[in-house]
Amino acid sequence: MKRKILYLLTLAGLMISAGLLSATEQDINDGTFLFCLKHEIEPLQISQSNDVITVDNDQLNSFFQNHQISRIEPWIINATEIDKDGDIYLNRIYRVYLKNSNRSSMEIAKSEITQFPFIHSSEYEHIRKINYDPNDPQLGQQCSIPAVKADLAWDFWDIDVGDIPGDRNVLLASVDTGVEITHPDLEHSIWINQGEVPSSVFNSTDTNNDDFVSATEVLAYLEANNLDTNNDSAINLRDALTSSSPFTNSQDNDGNGFIDDLVGWDLAGWSGADDNDPFPREGMTGASTWSHGTHVAGTLASTTDNSTGVASTAFRASIVAVKVAREYQEDPGITDGYSGITYAAKAGFYSDAFTIINNSWGGGGYSGYEQTVINNAHNTYGAIVVAAAGNGSNSGGEENSAHYPSSYGNVISVCAMGCNGTWGHWATYHSSVDLAAPGENVLSTVIGGGYQIRDGSSMASPNAASCIGLLSAFNPTWDNDQLIERILESADEIIYEINDEDYLQGNLGTGMVDIHKAIGGNIFPYLYYYSHALLNVQGDDDDVLNPGESSQLRITIGNTEGWQSATDLTATLTSDNPGVTIIDGNAVYGDIFPGGIQINISDVFEFELSDAIDLGEVEFNIDLSTTDASGEAYTQSVSFSIIVSLNQDGWPLDMLSEELYNVETSPVVIDSNDDGEMEIYFGDYSGNVYAVNADGEEIVNALFPFNTGDQIWGSPAAADIDNDGNIEIIVTSKSKHLFVLDPVNQTVDLDYYAVQFLMGTPVIANIDDDNDLEIIVGGFSSPAKIFAINADGSDVPGFPFELGEKMIKGLAVADFNDNGKVDIVAGTENYNIYLINDDATIAPGFPYLTGNKIRSAPAIAETESGKIILSGSRDNNFYGLNADGSLRFSVLTGDYVVNSPAFMETESGLAIFFGSLDGNLYGIDVDGNPLAGWPISHSGSITGSPVIADLNGDGMAEIVCGTQSAEIVAYNLDGSTFTYFPINNEFGFAGTPTITDTDGDLDLEILIGSTGNLANIDFKDEGNSDDYWSLFHGNLKRTGYYTSDPVDDCSGCSLGDVNCDGTIDVLDIVRAVYIIMNDPPDADECERIRADINEDGVIDVLDLVMLVNEIMN
Question: Would you give the end-to-end CA distance of the chain in angstroms?
Fold first, then answer.
């Protein structure tokens, strides 16, 4: 009976007559069974001639003839009288083959044979499967090495001075499909049976005179003497195994019962004939099941630190290659598995050592004979038997069941986990499992000199066995029971915290194998960095560590539970970062008991940062000195990082009343209650409008947080919409509502229901004949409308205007026909860009048809040559249109353009900046020509709009935006990167920055939303954002309208100095109020420009508020 990837193991069936557990139907081989003679009966003498089987027992001969027995053979090859457990002797167990392979014939024969008085018992032979699922061949990282903490355990050896981890006298056996002993990553780790090396070549092969012949020395001898003994045109270890090799002499020199077993043994051959070459079946590929044993061997003990392939935890151990698969099978069935266990156990015993035997196979069904083999290996030969716990059910899911040999006594049963300790829900779990180990994404050796990543408990088992090998190398006098006890008691129980399902508790063994603790936990403390605290940060007094600042430092050190105490601990602080100067790097900690922590409360460290240090994580090292359990000096180094950032203290924000979710809005920053401190307002996809102060503390009152009922995509606008002296926050929502919020009175002044999705940013402007401001917004439902709404919620005459084409982003407004009222620019889902007059008519020459949807909020630039309408499109173009609807230019990018442009005056004229989903930030002139140094490429798409400000106050503005690869970038006009940028964030940026002074310290902050937080970058130089396009759509009214300054003689006085007397004071407030109230004809253009502080094209209360703040600060 043949099954896909099933191994027929030499396993006995269950003794039903003894009342043991029954095997399932699928676990039993119908064509064979096992029987055992009583121990007082001599082993059988077997002969076969012309398909006739005879033994030296007439009753059995008659039985064989009556039941058509075609073959009989010893179950355990070369078993002797000492190979026993109780009254079961392994040299008296036989396998019989039936000519007619059917269940009923086998059952009858198995039952009848036990009636003979000289028969001890009979058992089924079980079908087992290999416990791995092959993956596509690929190279990758060995996550299993750090998962079992092998990299940490190796530090117990001083590798730098030649003290190499591991020991070649540690034997790790791959009892499997054979091992490619010629693999470049295995050949130097192959076990050489010292007792089988003929004396005639021992000394000449042992070139380093250490009385030990290694595989490396055997290879060197063969190569030096040009010994291609098998005539395959290659010199390798297989040449040492032929009859013409000087390393064979046809004698059992070590007395283990096997002749010339120099590197291991093939107990299966082609069809049962054994020999000394444990190589897999010839002609097989790395992807075949025949590579299974080679993959296991590489995990057990591939040569480590050899600049080749992979590493093994055991680092420097020896591989005992044991082949137990008969080669007549295309898909190998392991017919001699328990003979292999016995051979491997003897190999160690007769080498004055013991063997750690790995068995990456198994299945259901208990067998007393198999348990006898295990007990014999463990008790008689001192071996350690490790076995895979199984790969779950046949249907591919997890399974709670016994599995053999892993569930037998004296076997370490290993279940498969992910390298991060997670349970993959595909493997076997059971109360008989002893240990967990990495069994997913395990990279190891395969046939053909290659490597593959494979999954399965077949991979977990050798990972655990390799750990035991390293533990044995560190403790060479320990016996098998001591090693087993230590590897189990030191396992990491964290897997039960990671996988907290009730049904798994206690069924994954004692924990994930932890070789670091297994070796060191009895001798050393295991110290770790727990936390740190900065004290007395010297700089801008915001307790956030910035470049150029110094700080004192407390570091909490912990000692791991289950390790030893640290006595008289001292610590030295260092850093390899050239931007760090250690001022005081020494501290005394005293004693730390296992599970405890200690803090340098008074004996603090101190360090200083340079102005030029890079932002981000700055790594520090702590060299710890103490004594171990024996009183010897012990040192350990731990590392940690301190964040050097420009984050505002208390930022970024990721959790307020609720967790922030996709902050696309550009925040509004105003002093809404005239207390001299700024408030910050923004919305997110949860539908909430939040209010926070400059420290990131949420303002919770009768109004905020305010829930709009659905997602907020557009940025809030701000203006005194109802002329009550208070600045209101205007916000739109996917709930189809527009809200006017009064932060001062904590009231909702207006809830306008549009019956359409309102996705875009609202615009505040005067579109009619009165002197009041209106709210203008486009709808995103069919038939889409443009709304113009008065402060009392009434519609402006002529509105809503049914455009019939949905608008997902905001509008832009400017007075195109010079009648004192704004006109509207809109981009639609129907690929069109519209100019709509204030009287709700479509301007001549429009719409302009692009090649795809408009998902960009248009903007308008006023130049000496007239107004330009600018917008991106999903046809990958950025368009510039003249006021008559004609195309001025288009710029083709590599992907959608979904953001809005920013503007800046330069010596060469107006510069325009925009981003694309192709990751490029573009800079062009008014005719669409690229600026020198632009575009600039990024790894992430740019969805939010760029903004502009003079970050360091040098009179030269910088262009700032965020990317979806979680970077804030800033560039000079020539395209060079600005100091300290890019600045990284945890989440990708979705929003447009707002740059302003949020905390009144005269330097600028950059507020920008991401998919998971709102960041606030505190730039440390005094800068200027008032004179620039420093927030979405250029101003808080979100008009999207830029007016360049053509009046040269206005440059002599700054914004706010309305009367141009060189001082910004109450006289400027009086003049600004007069201009607002009376619109006097004597107010010249320069005076009006100086009074329009926020440069939104309208002189209003918002300008007065900013003027008052300027005077007070």
Answer: 90
CA distances from 640 to 509, 578, 618 (A): 32, 16, 8
Residues 743/691, Cβ–Cβ less than 8 Å:
yes
Dihedral pair phi/psi, residue 106, rounded to 5°: -65, -45
Write the pLDDT tens digit of every residue in 982-1032.
999 999 999 999 999 999 988 999 999 999 999 999 988 899 998 899 999
Give the model confidence (pLDDT) of 274-322 as tens digits.
899 999 999 999 999 999 999 999 999 998 888 888 999 999 999 999 9
- Nearest CA to 110 out of 180, 170, 23 is that of 23
Query: Count of alpha carbons within 13 Å of 310, Cβ hemisphere only?
Result: 32
**Mean pLDDT confidence for 1062-1071:** 82
Question: Phi, psi (5° rounding) for residue 151?
Answer: -60, -30
The pair phi, psi for residue 536, each rounded to 5°, is: 55, 55
Find, among 901, 842, 848, 902, the residue nearest to 875 by Cα.
848
Q: Is 988 in a helix, a strand, or coil?
A: coil
Q: Give residue for tokens 């490396």.
A: 216
Which residue bears the tokens 């020459």?
A: 845
Give the 3-state secondary structure of residue 592.
strand
Q: What is the pLDDT of residues 46-65, one digit of tens each?
A: 998 877 889 999 999 999 99
Show the 3-state SS of 300-331: HHCCCCCCCCCCCCCCCCEEEEEECECCCCCC
Cis peptide before 783 (omega within 30 of 0): yes
Note the pLDDT of residue 1047.
Answer: 34
Segment 529-537 shows an average pLDDT of 95
Identify the residue whose tokens are 């996809």: 685
Q: What per-residue confidence (pLDDT) applies to 1082? A: 64
For the entire predicted model, the pTM comes to: 0.66
Burial 1036-1066 (b: 16+ CB within 10 A, else e): bbbbbbbbeeeeeebeebebbbbbbeeebee
Distances (CA, A) of 664 to 757, 825, 912, 1005: 17, 22, 22, 18
3-class DSSP state of 26: helix
Q: Tell me, what's the pLDDT at 22?
A: 32
**Beta-bridge mates of residue 452:** 444
Higher pLDDT pick, 393 / 781: 781
Q: Which of 348, 340, 496 lies closest to 433, judged by CA?
A: 496
The average confidence (pLDDT) of the chain is: 91
Token code pair at residue 345: 């156990």
Q: Looking at residue 1112, what is its pLDDT?
A: 81
Cα separation, 51 vs 1037, whole angstroms: 101
Residue-wise DSSP of 865-907: TEEEEEEE-TTSEEEEEETTS-EEEEEE-SS---S--EEEEET
Residue 607 host element (H or E): strand 605-609
The label of the residue with tokens 């926020």 reads 1094
The pLDDT of residue 1052: 53
Q: Among residues of the chain, what percentage have pLDDT more than 70?
A: 95
Token digits of residue 897: 């353009």
Using alpha carbons, select from 453, 432, 588, 403 the residue that is nearest to residue 509: 432
Q: How many angstroms separate the CA atoms of 777 and 800, rounded?
A: 10
Alpha carbon 325 to chain centroid, angstroms: 39
Residue 1074, judged by CB atoms within 10 A of its CB (0-12, 13-18, 19+), counts as middle
Length of the chain (residues) = 1113
The helices-and-strands tally (H runs, E runs) of the chain is 16, 63
Bond from prior residue into 800 cis (ω within 30 degrees of 0): yes
CA separation for the pair 186, 312 (Å, rounded)? 11
pLDDT at 974: 96
- The widest CA-to-CA distance across the chain, in whole angstroms, is 135
Beta strands in 418-524 (DSSP E): 428-429, 435-438, 442-446, 450-455
Tell me the pLDDT band of 539, cut-offs 50, 70 and 90. Answer: confident
Average pLDDT (717-734) is: 95
d(CA 414, CA 468): 12
